[in-house]
Each structure stands twice: as C-alpha cells, then as structure tokens.
Specification:
Elements lengths: L1 E4 L8 H14 L4 E5 L5 H7 L10 H9 L13 E2 L5 E4 L5 H10 L5 H7 L7 E5 L6 H9 L2 E6 L3 H20 L5 E7 L7 H12 L4 E2 L8 H8 L3 H4 L4 H17 L2
Parallel strand pairs: 1-5, 1-6, 2-4, 2-5, 6-7, 7-8
Antiparallel strand pairs: 3-4
Length: 259
C-alpha cells in the first residue's frame, strides 16, 4: 500500500500527519517506510531527529542517479535510513532536491519514483509519501507512484478554495498517469470543536458529498513538543487525546483499505 499525503497549501500538517500515521503503522507491527519528497525535510527531521544535510545518502542522491547513467547504480534499498523506532524507515529528503527539479522535468523522469517503490513491494507493508506544498515534479511523481491520496485540511476558507483545485489535479493525474489512484479522504487537522467556523466549514464539505474522514484531529500544543523531541505522538504520549485520534484515524484507514 502506497499512500501520498498531498496539499498544495503550506502549513496544513502534511508532514505531521504523514509521520504520525506511519509511526502508528510501525508501532502496530507493519513494516513501514516514509518517503520525504519535500526539500524542507520536515518528515526527515521529525522521524530521524536529523536533517538530510547531515546524512550520507538521501533522495537527492537517488534522483541525481537517475540523471547520470552508471554501470553499477545503487539499489533503492541503499537510499533508506532506519529510524530509532522499530519497523519504521525513511527515504530522507535533502535541500538539493530543489536544484534537481528542472533537470528531472526536462528529461521526463516522472516515473522513476513509481518504479523504485515497486521494487520495495515485498519489503514494506505500507509506504507513506510526504510531498512539497506545490503541484510540482515531486508531487506528480508521488501521485503517480501511490495507490491512494490523503488530503489534509485545516478548516479555513483559503484551504477550502484550494481544495477543489486540488481534487481536480488528483483526478487529472488519475486520468493521465495512474488509473489506480484513489482519494481516500480529507483529513481535518487543527480542529477546534468549540469554534463555530471550523464546524461550519467541515459540515459544508460533508454536505457537498466530499469524503471527509472522522475522527478529526484536534488542535493541541502537544504536537509542538512532539516535533521538538522528534517523537511522534504514539511514542511521546500514547494516551493523549490527539494520539488516540491519530490511532482511530489510522485504524479506520486500515479497515477500509487493508493497510
């Protein structure tokens, strides 16, 4: 199962959602991989506790290899780093991804990630792919490589306006490149149950027939502590309300999609 977390709007919690769902999957015994395609490297820092700039091998090296033919290229497994948490590995990001993007686009390397992850099908039960806040080469590569898509939504009007264009973009990728790609649902993040506007906006999405997933993820300062310590909620405070919401969301996805 390959699952991409995607939104063109920044600050909606893509990396946080990616890493916490992946950590729960690993905690439950599934062999889990996080692929961090965002040059900012937030997922890499969150799970590994270290920046990709301080690692010997990253996704920038993988993509650079696709541009430069070698007689003995590295295998995809060599770009994977084990995390401190059992069953959880990372293909780390690097700021150098930004500089490679135009070259990758011009030489049409859009299917390389899909092919690489297909080689790992027997090694991992589930793969989570974090993406940049833009519909660029890396995001398209992720959508082409994935079985399904989760869309974080942070309950404001700007996010709502962006949502419709985002859904159209996913459908275009599906029609042109990946017929198996599905939208698993919209993940409501930073939800404030006592505030009127978030409830109103989310209910309107539901009334429009959009696939809003429950439970919603609550706003909590605890997540900042989780980021600071590089410990996803299931490891930092598994009994916290937000941790339990993540577990419930993970288990709902697992029941519906088998991973």
């Amino acid at each position: 199962m390959r699952r991409v977390v995607f939104n063109q709007k920044g600050g909606v919690g893509k990396s946080t959602i990616t890493c916490n769902l992946a950590a729960i999957s690993a905690h439950q015994g599934k062999r889990t991989l996080v692929v961090d395609l965002d040059p900012q490297g937030n997922s890499t820092q969150y799970v590994l506790g270290i920046s990709g700039e301080n690692l010997e091998t990253t996704l920038a090296d993988f993509f650079d290899q696709t541009l430069n033919f070698k007689l003995n290229p590295k295998k995809i497994e060599e770009f994977i780093v084990a995390s401190p948490f059992p069953n959880l590995d990372v293909m780390p990001s690097h700021p150098g991804l930004e500089d490679l993007q135009s070259k990758l686009e011009s030489r049409y390397k859009i299917y390389k990630l899909r092919d690489a992850l297909a080689e790992l099908a027997d090694d991992y039960d589930v793969i989570y792919i974090d993406t940049p806040p833009a519909l660029n080469f890396y995001t398209r590569s992720a959508l082409i490589a994935a079985d399904s898509c989760l869309i974080p939504f942070d309950c404001d009007e700007f996010s709502r306006r962006a949502l419709y264009a985002l859904l159209e973009n996913v459908q275009e990728i599906r029609a042109d490149h990946n017929r198996d790609l599905s939208v698993e649902g919209i993940v409501v993040n930073q939800f404030q149950a006592r505030a009127g506007l978030p409830q109103k906006v989310v209910q309107e999405l539901i009334d429009e027939g959009l696939p809003v997933l429950a439970p919603y993820l609550s706003a909590s300062v605890k997540i900042k502590e989780s980021h600071e310590q590089s410990r996803p909620m299931i490891h930092l405070d598994p009994k916290h309300k937000l941790a339990l919401e993540y577990v419930a969301l993970h288990d709902r996805l697992a029941r519906a999609y088998g991973a």
